[in-house]
Amino acid sequence: MPELPEVETVVNDLRAAGLEGRVLRGVRVRWPRTVAPDTPAQFRRRLHGARITLVRRRAKFIVCELSSGELLLTHLRMTGRLEVVPAAAPHDVHERVIIALDDGRELRFHDPRKFGRMHCAPRTGNALDALGPEPLDTALTARAFQARMAASRRMLKPLLLDQTFIAGLGNIYVDEALWRARLHPCRSAAALTSAETRRLLDAIRIVLRRGIRNLG
Asked: How far apart are CA 207 and CA 118, in angstroms?
């Protein structure tokens, strides 16, 4: 399952490929459930003619901001892959959505297991609203993190995996951070000392940055 560093790597690759600024000229949906709840026809209408103004990450979502005022949200789930390729590049059977760009290339969503999702959403009132703070955001200070931890009696590992508590962490990086911070995953969050909480936040940031540096 891709986690924050893996998704950040994909976002960086899409930016490097020049996806920002491209106009969406056509959409082919080969697996309708990928774009649910929209039908393929609705999905095509919402995307056609829109320009991608910004590509960013929020938690485990790849977010393309569109000139139409909407967002194109992609969640890779287990086996999803998003890439920009020439339109003449060979196709494969695992391509679920193909979006034609105005420069003759295509944005293709590959997903062998069919768990991934790609959908349009309004800027507000979408799946991103319920997410917790980003662990690498400087706005998440040690004091703010400690306050969030102190308010919960849940065990550390399930709490850190909860995307409404903190965004983008998955099993691999939570395990690595807890190991680095020398904290048992079954400890109660509220029972941590301020020094342990700070050590945990530092460990989370270290393992995530290392993951991004190593391209996920």
From this structure: 28
CA distance 156 to 174: 9
Query: CB atoms < 10 A from the CB of 41, how many?
Result: 11
Helix axis angle for 142-150 and 194-213, nearest 10°, is 120
What's the residue count for the chain?
Answer: 216
For residue 166 the two structure tokens come to 């903190």
Q: Residue 1: its pLDDT value, please?
A: 75
Beta strands (DSSP E) in 59-199 are 61-66, 70-75, 81-86, 95-101, 105-110, 117-122
**CA separation for the pair 181, 99 (Å, rounded):** 43
Gyration radius from the chain CA atoms: 19
Residues 6+ apart with CB under 8 A from 125: none
Of 2, 6, 106, 135, catalytic: 2
The whole-angstrom separation of Cα 161 and Cα 169 is 6
Q: Is-catalytic flag, 3?
A: yes
For residue 189, the one-letter residue type is A
Calpha distance 153→175 (Å, rounded): 19
**CA–CA gap between residue 135 and residue 166 (Å, rounded):** 7
pTM of the model: 0.94
- Residue 150 is inside which H or E element, if any? helix 142-150
Mean per-residue pLDDT pooled into runs of 10, the chain (216 residues): 93 98 97 97 97 98 98 96 97 97 98 97 94 97 97 98 97 97 98 97 98 93
Asked if 176 is an active-site residue, the reply is no
